[in-house]
Amino acid sequence: MTNHHGITIYYDGACPLCVKEISLLRRLDRPRDRLRFEDISPPDASPSCQIDRRDLMARFHVRLGDGKIVNGAQAFTESWSQIPYLIWLRPIGRWAPSRWALNKLYNGFLKIRPTLQKWVST
Description:
The protein has helices spanning 16-29, 53-58, 72-80, 89-94, 96-121; strands at residues 7-11, 35-39, 61-63, 69-71. The protein is an alpha+beta fold. The chain has a four-stranded mixed β-sheet, covered by helices on one side. The protein is globular, with a radius of gyration of 14 Å.
């Protein structure tokens, strides 16, 4: 099912960092409701896209209104750009040089994510 009016965010509902991020996005998205959230953490989750659940859990993914799926830095900037005063972030995630740099930072974050999750959950 394509959400033609916004984007679908696939997130790990078992990750305390992810839950905090999603909670903030939910608050900022009201009352527009341009963001659709899909928790893919339950083992029996059946994501509404063709990407393997393990791949969705390993890296942040969103499905744009046209059905295209993006991940990493572009996924974050596309999500945040749905908030009216943050729309300026969209070009940053779409411009190849900045997307490359942001993905390098994101890949570094993914390496320390397990440690950060422990800190956040305690």
